[in-house]
Amino acid sequence: MRKRKTAGALSLQASRDLTKYDPLEIGHALTEDVVEQIRICGERHEKIFNETEYCVILVVASDPLIKGVRRHKYAAFLYLPMPRPQQSVFLYNKISKSLKRLWSMPDARVMATITDLPTVAKKWQETQGWCKAFYHGWKYSKEQDKWINTTPSYFFDYIRHQHSIKMPSETEYLNANREKLIEAGCKDFPTGLTEAFDFSKVAVNKVIDPNNSVVE
Fold this sequence. Notes:
By secondary structure, the chain is of the alpha+beta class. Helices cover 36% and strands 19% of the residues.
């Protein structure tokens, strides 16, 4: 079996590559690969889910230790997942094998920027609508000293209206199927208080600078 290179080794190889590449060609290659992986994820869940339609999501995350590495994480849900930065959500139909993009979020900085802009270019208008729906209802609570979402269902109502679908959100799905899930063996645990992190456990010599990562 051929041994695959690790992400660290590929990152080191890329950093030493002085070849100039066409950004447009790279963009097309990335798009084609992402669509293929989304379809693979959708097809893998055809025998897992009884429902005809479900969501396939892609979350893009940077590596905490290796500079320049992006990790694509794929998953499937029977409900609309909670929106977050650098996330794309697609509606997959296992009968027609079709994919429909429900929303796609850029990184947090871009989300905040285009939400505050009065006008954006045409190609950003749809994204701006998703971002505004995401931030709608968020207010700062002096009593709790944090930002809270006073209308958490607004974003999902916006998406359902935009795409003419009736798929529930995670909270709505769990509440509607709570009894079935408990009968299936899922226990309903009460939410407890979280313990504060003990920063005394962090040793300075154990912190790794992602810009100076060493690849063996």
